[in-house]
């Protein structure tokens, strides 16, 4: 597409900068609250009242309306755009406000479903999503959404603030602006939580302060990105990508209504645990244990017996640590005894992730008790640390960097490009083998912005496309001419390649459709496209 030509505040034509599109989903929370006789309450009209008057959210360009979907209905949203970011683009955004707006202490599986479905029905219209949400249950919501969203290919960033955006001193502007810029710039296809200049994997987070601006931590997983004065520093080796050839899906209504959470304490009575485990229709319990996963066995093993009985009745019991750092394991005898009684070791899951993961698995159709316990002990969305496997880096390839004046990274990518073009699947696999260098190569691009997936699409190599997709290559990355791999694959008329890319969630943007003469699908209001550079 032609990049959007905007007008500056004085009506002067601006340099042509591309726009990315982000949908803000406002659920409530302190960020939009104002004082009332009942204390702080959320108020509507966030775009007009809080964002429009602030130059960092509004470059004063001519107003533009955009389409979105709400509960299956097509609606029109007012939009604003940021001034140019450090990544030479504007972020255009509109807001969908939930009704009623919530203090996040009242969110539940219904609210999570509403958020997830809103992302789903607007998925093809935006580059990324920012969910504004109260901080009290933010870590629970980020965890829940991460499980509910399968094969997510675009960023979903949850944020909020400790003080209202209307307060003189607040963290709201930094948190929201940082989230908008990241969601509009980087293909980080995860449910994330952004707070205090830091982007976390959502299902690793926990709220650690009721008042400090540094309110969240991710004790067992390094941040996915940090915002500094130099820009956004993304830790790409940590970023997870979909590795299945499948469309983005949402699981609705996870079952947290039949899951309980209990913190073990010295002197806890077996009867107390037993009565929780006998709550009618209870299906799961998150047991917060001491240290590395220990609980008192009770006099004559009575507490262990209560647990064993509950497991025999089909209740899934998951062991997580009360400690913020570290993990549970059968190192000590009490932990081993719990394991023998049928308790699942949740390794380094947070309570928030354990509870919502179990709720999710209980909502998935046709999972047996052993399917659920098996999945609780393994990472499905990066929520727990997996045993690390050794990785190695591939040598720099066959090209002599001094001869062709390429950097080592460019030389390696060039070698990959040739292997792709020649359809050399084995060579491609070998080059992508090292975990770190493999990820790097998947998002690297040539001088024309083509990633390995673009090259494979042009070379009509379905085997290589499949390999790249299952290693996490993004179908949404566009080259310098704004073309997706799908657009290029359609040009080669290779049906298998087109189908693979479509099955992996690839879609044409409006201008690509016009150029390719493709028929218009159901969702017709995609924005004009713009490059989403793979290195970002
Ligand atoms: N009570 C508020 C909420 O969670 C707290 C906040 O957003 N800072 O909605």
From TrEMBL:
<dbReference type="InterPro" id="IPR027473">
    <property type="entry name" value="L-asparaginase_C"/>
</dbReference>
<feature type="region of interest" description="Disordered">
    <location>
        <begin position="512"/>
        <end position="536"/>
    </location>
</feature>
<dbReference type="Pfam" id="PF00710">
    <property type="entry name" value="Asparaginase"/>
</dbReference>
<keyword id="KW-0378">Hydrolase</keyword>
<dbReference type="InterPro" id="IPR041725">
    <property type="entry name" value="L-asparaginase_I"/>
</dbReference>
<keyword id="KW-0040">ANK repeat</keyword>
<feature type="domain" description="L-asparaginase N-terminal">
    <location>
        <begin position="21"/>
        <end position="238"/>
    </location>
</feature>
<dbReference type="InterPro" id="IPR036152">
    <property type="entry name" value="Asp/glu_Ase-like_sf"/>
</dbReference>
<keyword id="KW-0677">Repeat</keyword>
<dbReference type="Pfam" id="PF12796">
    <property type="entry name" value="Ank_2"/>
</dbReference>
<dbReference type="InterPro" id="IPR002110">
    <property type="entry name" value="Ankyrin_rpt"/>
</dbReference>
<dbReference type="InterPro" id="IPR006034">
    <property type="entry name" value="Asparaginase/glutaminase-like"/>
</dbReference>
<protein>
    <recommendedName>
        <fullName>asparaginase</fullName>
        <ecNumber>3.5.1.1</ecNumber>
    </recommendedName>
</protein>
<dbReference type="Pfam" id="PF17763">
    <property type="entry name" value="Asparaginase_C"/>
</dbReference>
<feature type="repeat" description="ANK">
    <location>
        <begin position="448"/>
        <end position="480"/>
    </location>
</feature>
<dbReference type="GO" id="GO:0004067">
    <property type="term" value="F:asparaginase activity"/>
</dbReference>
<dbReference type="GO" id="GO:0009066">
    <property type="term" value="P:aspartate family amino acid metabolic process"/>
</dbReference>
<dbReference type="InterPro" id="IPR040919">
    <property type="entry name" value="Asparaginase_C"/>
</dbReference>
<feature type="domain" description="Asparaginase/glutaminase C-terminal">
    <location>
        <begin position="258"/>
        <end position="372"/>
    </location>
</feature>
<dbReference type="InterPro" id="IPR037152">
    <property type="entry name" value="L-asparaginase_N_sf"/>
</dbReference>
<dbReference type="InterPro" id="IPR036770">
    <property type="entry name" value="Ankyrin_rpt-contain_sf"/>
</dbReference>
<comment type="similarity">
    <text>In the N-terminal section; belongs to the asparaginase 1 family.</text>
</comment>
<dbReference type="InterPro" id="IPR027474">
    <property type="entry name" value="L-asparaginase_N"/>
</dbReference>
